[in-house]
Amino acid sequence: MAAPMSSPHAQGSNRTRTIMLQVLGATAPGIALMTWFFGWGTLINILLASTCAIGFEAAILRLRRRPIGFYLNDGSALVTAWLLALALPPYAPWWLVLVAIGFAITFGKHLYGGLGQNPFNPAMLGYAMVLVSFPMEMTSWPVWRGIEQLQPAFAPTLGLMEGLQRVFMPGSLPADGWATATALDLLKNNSALTMAELQQAQPAFGSMAGRAWEWVALAYLAGGLYLLYKRIYSWHAPVGMLGALAVMSLLFWNGSGSGSNGSPLFHLLGGATILGAFFIATDPVTSATSNRGRLVFGIGIGVLVYVIRVWGNYPDAVAFAVLLMNLCAPTIDYYTTPRTYGHRKAKRGLGKGAE
To answer: How confident is the model at residue 11 (pLDDT cuts 50, 70, 90)?
Structure first.
C-alpha cells in the first residue's frame, strides 16, 4: 500500500539544489559556443566568479551565524556566479569579477535575509553596479574567432595563457587589437549608414544579429527550452518578454535605412536577450508569482529592453529592465492574484479590502 501524501501532492525531486544544478546544466550549450567563439575568457570568468561567490557566501553566513555547509549546498551562490560570469565580458579583469560578485552576494542577496527574501536579482544587481562604475572595462568585448581573416588589424582569439595574463595582468598586454564593439553598440551609434552598408563595413554583424552572438543566443534558447520541458519554470515570463520585444522592434523598426533601429530578429538574437528571457526573467524569487503576473512581468521587461536600447544610453539593457521590473513585482502580484479555490472570482487590487 502506498504511503499517504499530504498536500500539495507534489512528487519528484524538485529541491532547490536539484533545480539549481539543472539550471547550471542548461547553460552548457551557450558556454560551449562562447568558449569556441571567444576563447577561454568565459570559462575563466566562471571559475573566478564561482570561487569568489563561494568565498563571499561562506564569509557572510559565518558572520550571520548560519550553517555554512547547509546553505552552500543549495547551489544558489553558484547560479548567481555563473549567470553573472556569462553576462560579463570574457577576460574581464579579476578585480571586476570580484567586485561584481561581492556586490551581488552581499547587497543583492544577504542584505535582505538570504535566498528567497531578496527583491532584486543578485546577478543583475552586480552586473548593473559594475556597468555604471566601470564602463570602459564593461564594454571591452573580445573579438570572435576568425575576425583576423576579415580585418587583419585584429589579433586572433586569445589562447589560455594569454587569456590568464589578460585577466590577472591586464596592463602587460597591448590594449589594441583584441577587443571590438558589439553589433548593438555599432547600431546604437550609427547615424549615416544604411543597414546593408553597416553590415558590409562592420564584420560584427552576422546574417541575423551580431556575428557569433546569434549562435550563442540559439544555444541559450536550447537550454531554456530544456528547462521548460523539465518544468523548472512556466512559459509565461520568457514568452511575454520575447513577444513584447518583438512587437516593439516591429513597430519602431524604421526599415533598413540609416535611421533603422534594427529588425525584430536582430533584437531577439542580439546581446543577452535569450539569456535574460530564459535564465534571468524566470527567477522565481524576484519575479511575479502567478502565471498572469509572470506574463505581465515578462512583457514589462521586453518593453523596457527595447526602450533603453533605442532611446537610452545602454545598448543591451537587459539588466536594467529586469531590475526595474523587480521593483514592480509586488504591485503586479497585488493586481494579478489568482482565484482562490472555492471562490468564483479573485479579489484583486483595491477590491481585496472589500467584504
So the answer is: very low
Nearest to 89 by CA among 158, 29, 171, 172: 158
Q: Tell me, what's the pLDDT at 5?
A: 42
Torsion of CA 303, 307, 308, 312, to 10 degrees: -170
H/E stretch holding 142 = strand 141-142
Residues 6+ apart with CB under 8 A from 81: 46, 49, 50, 52, 53, 54, 101
Helix ranges restricted to H, 64-109: 68-72, 76-87, 94-106
Q: Between 194 and 299, whose confidence is greater?
A: 299
DSSP string, 270-284: STTHHHIIIIITT-T
Nearest to 325 by CA among 127, 119, 126, 123: 119
pTM: 0.87
Which cell numbers hold the place of 277? 528571457
Local structure of residue 4 (DSSP, 8 states): P
User: Partners of 180 in the beta sheet?
Assistant: 141
H or E element that contains 131:
helix 122-133
Q: Quickly count helices (H) and strands (E) in the chain.
A: 18, 2
In angstroms, the CA 126 to CA 195 distance is: 34
| Residues 79 and 20: beta-carbon distance below 8 Å | yes
Question: In this structure, what C-alpha cell is assigned to residue 49?
Answer: 566568479
Name residue 215's amino acid. Answer: W
288 near 332, Cβ under 8 Å? yes
Strand, helix or coil at 179? Answer: strand
Torsion over CA: 203, 128, 120, 73 (sign): positive
Handedness of CA 216, 45, 109, 67 (dihedral sign): positive
Cell output for 325 = 521590473
Using alpha carbons only, give the angle 168, 276, 260 rounded to the nearest 5 degrees. Answer: 100
